[in-house]
Design goal:
By secondary structure, the chain is mostly helical. It is 58% helix and 4% strand. The chain contains six helices and two strands.
Length: 107
């Protein structure tokens, strides 16, 4: 899966193997080896590729079909260890918290 994904992303970005190699500091022959399945990148190189293509390492490795990297939710949209909430729920929680604080301040 990795060879196909790398080739797809490289061509999608209009790069030759040589150009991609320059961008991530590997030889053209190394890119060729990756795309032919004869070589595998080390972790640092894999991360460089993912960052360059604004992709995830999981996508490059075939672990997901979603090419975009995981986007962490802002803190106000996280609840109990990453359980995400909708914008409507965030607004409800803000309003509820404001009411709670208002009543808590009364003597």
């Amino acid at each position: 899966m990795f060879p196909e994904r790398l080739r797809y992303l490289r061509k999608k970005h209009g790069l030759t193997m040589k150009e991609l190699g320059r961008k991530i500091n590997v030889a053209e022959s190394t890119i060729s080896g990756y795309e032919n399945g004869n070589r595998k990148p080390d972790m640092d190189t894999l991360v460089k590729m993912a960052e360059y293509f604004n992709s995830s390492t999981d996508y490059l490795l075939g672990r997901t079909d979603e090419p975009a990297p995981y986007q962490k939710q802002p803190p106000e949209k996280q609840l109990l260890y990453s359980e995400t909430v909708t914008d409507e729920e965030v607004e409800f929680l803000r309003e509820s918290l404001a009411v709670f604080r208002k009543y808590r301040e009364k003597p």
